[in-house]
Amino acid sequence: MSEQLKENKNTHSEHRHYGIQTPGTSGVAGTKRYGMVIDLRKCIGCMACVVADKTEYDVPLGVWRTWVKVSEKGEYPDVRKIFMPRLCNHCDYPVCVRHCPTQATYKHQDGFVLQRYNRCIGCRTCMVACPYNARHFLPAKRTNMSLPHAVVDKCTFCIHRVKQGVSPACVQACVGGARIFGDLNDPNSEAAKLLATERVTVLKPEMGTNPQVYYIMADKDIMDEVHSYKHRSEQLKEEFNDFKKNHLGMQHGDLIEGEGTTKQIFENLGTFAEEIPHKFLEIGKALKRLVFNR
Amino acid sequence: MESKVIMNVFHHATWGEPIAIYFFLMGVSAGAHVISAFGWVFGIKRYKPIGLFANIFSIIVLLIIPPFLIADLGKPVRFFYLFLPGYWHGTSPMSWGSIFLILYTSFMTTYAVFIYKNNEKWARVFGLLAMTFAASTHWYTGVVIQLNPTRGLNHTATAPLLFLTGAFISGTAMLIVLFWIKNLIKFGERVGDELIIELGKVMMFGIAFEMLLTFNEYLQLTYGTDDEFVYLKDILFGVMQTYYYWLNVVALVASFVILAFTPLRKTVGGVILACFLVIAAIWGMRHWWVYGGQYLQTFF
User: What's the CATH code of the domain at A18?
Assistant: First the structure.
């Protein structure tokens, strides 16, 4: 079996782990490598996975751990919808881990790419590095302030459930059974069997990250970044702009299409200038707590 | 067959104005320090009198940077994690940068003290060290944006070179403008017109190199992949047109023409005009690198 596993190993991604990053375990005998196979023939776009995930983690408005991208293909009357569930790809060679300056994000030996909130400084360099937009920044103010805030968050493949022998929330909620989760190094797991028998594809394989979310029957257009930008419906364009206008406190470098770039950049600067005193007040309060122990 | 994306979630461009301004200020500081080193490190005597002024300006600019960087963090209180041994991460460019920034500031301050005390030997030693770390710190700003394969516009090995050259010319331009203001308001010792014109000539060589690199970048995008072409057509000549085309390209070329071919190059007024154009060009360059590079990915 080990010979077969060695053959399966993606040789293009070999030796791409750097520093403290855990070496890739995909196809390495004697190790676990959890991953997901998404059978798009069975996905009906019901968004149950998105809701399950939101509920499992109290994911705030405006950010997602998993989401479903939808496109429409064909011409009337021969039109069909195409779904593309998305989540963290738990890469074997995750660039986010490599870029994190405080070791806040790391790769678990079983393949999960995880985030340590207590170490995260909120610099968002991992978000810039991630090719899959799998990370999001939690808002500074949340209804329940004991939950992580103003740090980066991401999908964890529900490690807390997997360690108890339960499948991730999105997998359990999937009505069509499109999401299949398991140890890809275990040839008896359902996910590994699908990988061995079906033609699968991954998102952005050219990034050298060796992603571990595999898609069966994925449409090439919906997987393409340029297509996703160029061929958006007018309604989606409006929705994006409305979202950017109304989703306060999360502007960063966002630009609204069709409005003056310079004006927006100055507005971004204004928003940031307003934030500076608050941020330093926060530092002052922390120092006070540290010095006076209260 | 027609295919349209009808539903997706929006992803934010995660770095914004504070980062663009940080890149700009860091460049100005490093560039001004190089001018300061002309006299005290490389021994060109006519540059010695401006050494301390250039160095103090460089330090002041550097002191403006931390509030931008710290306030941009989600958890500003935790900024010191970047320096803690158990947290510091050797593979992260940001970790290298935080160390470079600290060393640069320390060496530059020590260098200023030795210039003030007129101690040539130690000023040279610390000036050289500070220059090395000025270059390293600004090199890292290029690298931190370069090492993201997913941001096609930024993922190019010319990034650090473009950033370093941009730093040199923007720092020089800013200093020349300050010398001019200093002379106008008669503050301290007057900086001679010849020196200002000479600095303009030095800046011109930097501008030429910057133009070459910018052209190289343009060529790569023109002959590049599908997404690189979108970056060029829809982003650089679309959303970021003011910053890329009008500021970075047109203003930079105009400043070069003034300094290389027109009689204005021999006048202080002409050099000052070129300086304003260079400052605008590099301001634009920092912005299209940060905003433009992240734009396409947000729709994926």
Answer: 3.30.70.20
- Cα–Cα separations (whole angstroms), residue A128 to A32, A71, A203, B58: 28, 25, 17, 29
For residues A166 and A262, membership in a common domain is answered with: no
Contact state of B148 with A95 under an 8 Å Cβ cutoff: yes
Q: Shortest CB distance from B7 goes to which of A123, A152, A236? A: A236
Q: Tell me what the mean pLDDT of segment A144-171 comes to.
A: 96
**Residue B67: its pLDDT value, please?**
85
Domain count, chain A: 2
pLDDT (average), residues B198-220: 96
The verdict on A115 and A254 lying in the same domain is: no
Query: How close, in Å, is residue B132 to chain A by CA atoms?
Result: 22
Is the Cβ pair B300, A150 closer than 8 Å? Answer: no
Q: Are residues A168 and A258 in the same domain?
A: no
Which tens digits make up the pLDDT trace of A77-97? 999 999 999 999 999 999 999
Strand partners, A114: A106
Question: To the nearest whole angstrom, how far is the Cα of B28 from the nearest Cα of chain A?
Answer: 19
Direct distance between the N- and C-terminal alpha carbons of chain B, in angstroms, rounded to an integer = 20
Q: Do B75 and A232 touch (CB under 8 A)?
A: no
One domain, residues A212 and A259: no
Nearest to B89 among A103, A120, A257 (CB): A103
Structural domain containing residue A273: 237-292
